[in-house]
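As described in the Methods, two query proteins were run sequentially through the folding procedure within a single session, without resetting any intermediate state between them. The first query and its resulting structure tokens are shown here.
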Amino acid sequence: MILSYMKLMKEEAEKHHLPFGKEDLRSYASKVKLYPGVIDWFKRMNLYALEKGVALEHYIISSGLKEMVEGTVIAPYFKEVFASSFMYDEKGNAVWPGLVVNYTNKTQFLYRVNKGCLDVSDDDTLNRHMDDDEKPIPFTNMIYIGDGQTDIPSMKTVKREGGHTIAVFAGDNEWQRNNVKQMLGIERADIIAPADYRENQPIDLFVKGVIDKIIADARLKKLQHTLTK
């Protein structure tokens, strides 16, 4: 499906004589309407974590287009964007899908974050054994926010490994709410919440709670280590 929509986008752009290069896709992203609170979310959450002595990193794993994500106002807040993207010719025009991210390979990028292997061309490091205490970002320290069926395998992986998951839906979309509600029933999501990222809304409160839990767990683990020497 992802390959099909990428091919269709290119064909439709050519049919209607619309420019379809890397910079064009980034410029189209300026028209993307963001959910409430998203623009302020990153600064606020980073500050919350920093005041408690921990660093917070943000990543995108999406079946959408990387170029579109890179064109949004929130792009600078992501350490890495893993998303579908095109290959381009010498003039910057899209010619062929270069990377496809779908529901089955989304989990690969979770392991890349887990191991600190962010170069998508580096499969050797990704597949090399690494002890858990050497991995930069343990799954237990991850919070995965997803909104659809393509997120289910990733949410399953994060929860299985001790992390936390949130399934979000557009606040006025009852169909989408019922759809993500199924993720609670199959134990893929810890909570479901409207895609409202403003302060003191459910997502804001839950993420802050998880950050506090991660810090408390780390302190307890350190104490246990000290007391068992």
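Immediately afterward, the second query was submitted; its sequence and tokens are:
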Amino acid sequence: MFETTHFPGAKKYWYNGRLVDWNRAELHVMTHALHYGTSVFEGIRAYLTDRGPAVFRLSEHIDRLFHSAEVMRMEVPYSKKEIVDTVLELMRVNELKSAYIRPLLFYSYGNLGLVPHSAPVELVIGCWEWGAYLGEEAKQKGVHVLLLPWRRFHRSQIDLSAKLGGVYVQSKITAEFARRQGFNEGIMLNLEGRIAEGPGENIFIVKEGVVKTNPGSESILEGITRSSVLEIARDAGYPTEVGPISVEEFISADEAFFTGTAAEITPITRVTDGSNPNTSREDWKHYTIGDGVPGGICRHLATLYSKTVRGQLPQFEHWLSYVYRSREEAQAVLGSFSAAS
């Protein structure tokens, strides 16, 4: 029996072409990915709209899943359309109004040499209800972040445009370190000593009205939420910039915020610099971003993003994949509902 405390609403997951009860285990303990992290994945969200639930930028996420598989030298046993259709089917089967969706391609049971020559590639997809990654209070009041003493994997070492399971070991270690030190989240620098990203988030700053984020050349994963926010900001009339962000530029910004599928848009209001591994905690310096509260541009973009994912901005409706063909069909399954503002 598997507890669903952290997976509310989960009834079934999809595994290799069939629906499986959430409480049923299907994998062998000698699965290749369990030992070596040989997997690729996506984090996707569905939101409730006036037409029922809709998955945000589903096509783009599945495109990236295939890109990640290519980087892993992994043959995907399904087409993009099959995976897209399966995600929508799984949302209907679980009768979810909103959800976090996790497709995972991985090398399964076969051999345990580093090269999985006898391990087949398998696909599992799950979905469940999940709130804001850093918490609703964080989205309203902002977070205190720690500049970490470890550097982000460098783009010269591994292709960081892919979401590779094994790479997230670094994210786990750094995120847990920051939390154990009393911070909401950590931020990694790159080998050049500039701002890279959070364990699972991209970073934006605002200075004199310009909305800026850093490019893939800074050893980041260029997130789909990141690209969405850039386009939303431009549509709203804000000047945008994509370029390297120094530590000095970050801590002196008027505003700063995280973006990510899980984090959505989360303001950063305080920073502690622990990036020098040769200094003790007593020597870490503390900074306030802007006025120490979420800034006006960040709050405006968060509002626009919330409206976008809920189908309230027609210019971005092409980013939505509706789970049901009509509001009436959604109501027949889910009962009455109204989209959150």
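The two ends are 37 Å apart (CA to CA). We note this only descriptively and draw no conclusion about the first query from it.
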